[in-house]
Description:
136 residues, mainly alpha, Arc Repressor Mutant, subunit A
Amino acid sequence: MDTTFPDIRSFGGAAAFLRACKPRTVLGIFTNKWSGLVMGALLDGPRRFNELRRILDGLTQKVLSQTLRNLERDGLVTRTVYPTIPPRVEYELTELGHSGVGVLRAIGDWAGEHADDVIAARQAYDERAREPVKPV
Amino acid sequence: MDTTFPDIRSFGGAAAFLRACKPRTVLGIFTNKWSGLVMGALLDGPRRFNELRRILDGLTQKVLSQTLRNLERDGLVTRTVYPTIPPRVEYELTELGHSGVGVLRAIGDWAGEHADDVIAARQAYDERAREPVKPV
DNA sequence: CAGTATCCATCTTGATACTG
DNA sequence: CAGTATCAAGATGGATACTG
């Protein structure tokens, strides 16, 4: 059986693992609150800044700006400036970005399939915590 | 082509999406810093608390305790107390937990395959940012 | 052994205002 | 239009000490 998933022991502990493991440095892409949503909004093609703001209603300019800059820095999104007046900037998923969406989709699929299980488990746990200990 | 991944528009904006989308409430499992590592440490079978501490060297008791409690609450891990002296507590992945590891593996695989691309993109981006050095 | 309690550092998110 | 700057708040992570 395959038991190598995180394989922390070969790194000498979790702390060392976090430091040494290159893939781990990349995980921020998927743990970020907005990255996935922004990438999803780019699936249909290039989008302008305020276009994204409208689609993703609820993000402040700052957060959208930050998210896009991080995605650009990680090579998941390209930023193209057209030197017109007024300025026109388009964001578009790269190949790498599209492949990343695949992972996002896998996460989303699991969440969709099992959300009810998890929510039920949470309710059961919270109710157990409120009740006194049942005698055996 | 499938373009329905986050499908934010059908929710009326990202803010509403985050509130209404049940799967989204479950994503914390994968965005947590330690959950994946702890679940990985449970792949080989049940583990005791301090056993996990040794495997995951670097976690404090508090963080391990918190992580395990969250995993238990979400139904991914069971906690079994043996009323011996000294106390013996064992943690074990549930079926749901094992299926969650599958997602973690997908994330890890992508990260492993593309970490170098992302790291290279970051370096390129950071170097571009340093170029236009203007004298003060 | 298996935790809790406390206190603090940091990181992320966000509201608001301003700019080329 | 497409951003940046500033400040504040909250979540998260962690070091240390104590307990049944």
